Model the fold of this input.
Amino acid sequence: MNLKISSISMAFVILFSPLFTFSQSPNLGSLTNMAMFTNVGAFSNSGPSSVLGDIGTNSGAISGFPPGIVNGQTFIEDPTTLMASADVTLLYNSLAAIPCGTPLGSVLGGNQILTPDVYCLGAASTLNGNLFLDAEGDPNAIFIFNIDGAFSVSALSNLILINSASARNIYWRINGAFELGAYSVFRGTLVVNGAIELLNNASLLGRGLSKVGAITLNSSNTIRYLSTLHINTFIEGYYLSNELMDSVLTNSNLPNVLSSMSDSIKIELHNTSFPYNLVTSSTTILNTNGTATSDFPVLGTYYIVVKHRNGLQTWSAMPIELTSLPAFYNFTDSSSKTYGNHLKQVDFNHWAIYSGDINQDENIDLLDLAELELGIANFDSGYINTDLNGDGNTDLLDIPLLENNIGNFIFSMHP
Done:
């Protein structure tokens, strides 16, 4: 099974009751594998929607699959949905009982940055544009939003997670309907007292759970996350000193780039036996301090593979087990953390992924040099793969790094 996930994200909530505190995640029980579920209501789909995880209703019909695809099980009015219905109600009520930490206005977005807290919105609310959730480096950071009214996400809006934030630790209790606008990306677990609708090409990276109301999908995507992986890695050409890299994404001139972001990377999970096939992948932000977080829809043991647009594909030295608890892997503290001891030492006790594989053929060689020389001749600048040192230009300053790696016959090593 080859499951592709874009950017960067999970769904455990904190129940504030005698059994749980704000710093704890509950056992979701029968909801663990659910991606979309309603206690009471029809579940319909139109178009080529995709759901990764189980779906169900405890009272209603399910239609539209196909053309929609469910990579999981479907449950309709059976013992599984009966248990799920009780758990949804318990979860909703537990979230509603949490005291407010910080009140917010009814409009979120506009490149707003929020840190871990219990947020309360006292009326129907909207998300317009980009909203950043910043975990401040805490992989266990919890975000809870209690909204006393309907909640809508405008088209082309995004919920962006930074600094170790995880979709599995974000919960939205909504006392009304939820609508996810076209081409928007939203993260976390929705616990809704109303209908849930995902419009054209919208993506929910988490779960959609309703106490009462129909669920409607329109050529959309839903991914239920089960595990979280936090890694540390540096890119050779971007490394400055003192465990910091350059903020290369700023060369892209995108409106939602923060100075704490270095670049994007892809993290892949591969099987542990020949032919080591790709299982799933996630594109995420690599911070300037070398940290990155990805959420995955699988549990199990896998090789970790890191890919960067001009870096050398790098594999973990051994398979890593992913469970319901956060997993950690540090590529920066020893070359032995990679398959074949294959990292570049960038200072006394830190290692980085080799830079220079511009054409991504798993070798740093004369073919990459030809692309670099062409970029120099064309005076290429901006967010470009041939800019190996991240200064926004393809020029003579990029050549020494590349020629050194070519001379050392650097190529990707993996099982």
Observations:
- The helical segments are 79-96, 366-377, 399-407.
- The two ends are 20 Å apart (CA to CA).
